[in-house]
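Standup notes
- DV: blocked on the single-chain target, sequence here:
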Amino acid sequence: QVQLVESGGGLVQPGGSLRLSCAGSGINFSFYDMAWYRQAPGKQRELVATIASGGNTNYADSVKGRFTISRDNAKNTWYLQMNSLQPEDTAVYYCHAERRNRDYWGQGIQVTVSS
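- DV (later): unblocked, structure below
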């Protein structure tokens, strides 16, 4: 079966850093476009960052310059490096993979930024 499993979340102080990982299994994701989303309670889920199969990246304005999305096709894994974290970044983060009309979601992982 196909699975996406996030890891690396937790509690961090403002200004700190975290690195989220999303490990795929069941299929080869090298031809998929990958992304990270986040959702805070009572808010809409928002797109944080994307990385296409060809390597092009895009970021939400709120995280541009602080977050970096990357992928390791040999490990079937993609990452979100989060620096200079602020309380506004607190949310459940979800990894996502898409190819044409087929997509997969991770279960979500909590990131809390608080002093």
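- Follow-up: The chain has a mean pLDDT of 97.
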